[in-house]
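For reproducibility, we list the full input for the magnesium ion complex.
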Amino acid sequence: MAARQETVARVEAIDVDAYKYGFTTDIESEKAPKGLSEDIVRFISAKKNEPDWLTQWRLEAYRRWLTMREPDWARVHYPPIDYQDLYYYSAPKSTPGPKTIDDVDPELLRTYEKLGIPLREQEILAGVETRKVAVDAVFDSVSVATTFKEELAKAGVIFCPISEAVQTHPELVRQYLGSVVPVTDNYFATLNSAVYSDGSFVYVPKGVRCPMELSTYFRINEQKTGQFERTLIIADAGSYVSYLEGCTAPKRDENQLHAAVVELVALDDAEIKYSTVQNWYPGDSAGKGGIYNFVTKRGDCRGRNAHISWTQVETGSTITWKYPSCILRGDNSQGEFYSIAVSNGHQQVDSGTKMIHLGRNTKSRIVSKGISAGKSQNTYRGQVSAHRKAEGARNYTQCDSLLIGHDCGAHTVPYIESKNPSAQFEHEATTSKISEDQLFYAMQRGLSAEEATALIVNGFVRDVLQQLPMEFAVEAQKLISISLEGSVG
Amino acid sequence: MLEIKNLHVSVGDREILKGLTLTVKDGEVAAIMGPNGTGKSTLSYVIAGREGYDVTQGEVLLNGENILDLDPHERAARGLFLAFQYPVEIPGVATMQFLKATLNAQRRSRGEPELQTPDLMKRVRDAAAKLGVSQEMLRRPLNSGFSGGEKKRMEVLQMALLEPSVGILDETDSGLDIDALRVVSEGVNTLRSPHRSFLVITHYQRLLDYIRPDTVHVMAQGRIQRSGGPELALELEKNGYRDYIAEEAA
Ligand SMILES: Nc1ncnc2c1ncn2[C@@H]1O[C@H](COP(=O)(O)OP(=O)(O)O)[C@@H](O)[C@H]1O
Ligand SMILES: [Mg+2]
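The corresponding predicted structure, in tokenized form, follows.
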């Protein structure tokens, strides 16, 4: 209960425009010239000292992208994005690439400290937490530090910026990059393939249980700069890894573009747990500024008995367009999607998942909790399909929406498709409001309106919070309360 | 002590309470009896601070302080408790968690130290045992899937933990079988003290066999029509509310 109390204290301590990660870091950066062209693609590739095959891969993506149209089927509205008015590469001058922690610009270390992400291993070890978490810190277009690399290497786990993996493990990158989300997949993924700058790379060898949680922390700092990160995680046969992703950005009046791609590959009997707490700047109470978050995340259960689970807590961004999905290719493989999507102010969320059942006896489970407040719109969009050969496929979908106030909207758009008669899909959906009755009852027992709302919302999302690693769950709970600040009374 | 003075309350254009006056002294158990739809629940909600009611005239004093401008949680922290006629379900929030949150919220606003989990668990267990509330129920989400009787026990359990100076029981007897009625009434009786007042709202005389009131007040048409001792309840049992309704209409 200490955590809840703290939540309440924090909620009380902030005003309506309460985004607390909105500070900027004053640091000189090196940028590519504004705009997008083959030259810019080559510039980025050259900055990363990439082999020719990768440069060509990017260029192909770029040429393809020029022929594509921005998708418009999601329930989100925003003015056209001027792709020539953005910077596609920005790196802190002092730390243009990963270094040992002592060489990282202290200003950057302070930034991450302020965000609650200590990068010095000894500081982490000195902390009260007993569990260690290895962090890859990505600042604008580059990874600035990765912790616990050596300790992980002892277990055979590779955890490094993807730009580094291209140099040190080119064969792995070449084999798997684009193998889950093909270059041609969709407008934003194709753009990402052309201009992605950095992100994390993980390889867990056969039979290894990764000895600690891995995490990447993304920070957008520069103005008018798109962040296009690329994450690739490979869990070899019989291995296990739990991976956490966190993100924040400064408050800026203009909208910033974030178009990431995450690819997961789980081979025979391997398991990947991927958790996200997304807290990009959501814009101010008038709807000005904020991150456009167009993300393609997909996991491929490529082997038998493979298991991939996505858990996401989405509180930030002005627009969220995101459908972490599972391809259940291996027989008996399992996919899971647990989601809490909170929208307030003028935020627009269109998020959900796809579960594509290809193999026999594949199982999937979807639990989605949408909370809408203010003038926001919150859409769950989900697809469950069974291929002809997906004998015995099973899906269970539970989709709950909670409305706070009268000016917001919740929408559920499920697509279900089965080409195999033995497939069994179940779908349950509810929409409810925090009732006057509940609020008054809790207040009569001594809780303030804010405390009462936080408690009721926490009850609503409990099933999903339980899926998160402990420390993250507490953090997520606080974040949800803070995001809903100003929505009561 | 609870003092209600010339209370007028409207919902929209409709006046429901029409100049209600009633005092419940320290240590007193007062019963309000009246026909359905006469405004008994409205009275309890207005005392507890629910939104949606316009107080057009009058005062409500809790231990001498006018509480009408306070939020519900502020009234609660000052010692007011309302056992609901229809307790509310809060899905996903474990009962124990709810009890802890509310108890400590009240303690915080009174400037008292919060209870640590072991101390709190012990208090809850002791109180639960007396009311026949199982450990399993404490782990379940508050009131979710509880039977009518279980919900009412849970209300009395909360009252026992929060130790209010004024407890209002709104038709706590409705939906209870005779055994549950006995347990719940005993729970209330053990809380009786010279420093605590109760306002027991009921439609039937039956509850007053178990919780013996000091005073009985007949409410009809938004007002107290008559006050007396326990014998008044027996008279009502025999004659019903006919006279009071007729009187008003005349
Ligand atoms: N929120 C409300 N809106 C409109 N009418 C109400 C509201 N609350 C109570 N009433 C009306 O006021 C009258 C008294 O109701 P209530 O206080 O529940 O009576 P009792 O508890 O004595 O049965 C009823 O006619 C009821 O319909
Ligand atoms: Mg009533």
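The CA atoms of residues 216 and 232 of chain B lie 6 Å apart. Residues B 11, 16, 34, 36-42, 52 surround adenosine-5'-diphosphate (ligand 1) (CB under 6 Å). Both points were considered when choosing residues for closer inspection.
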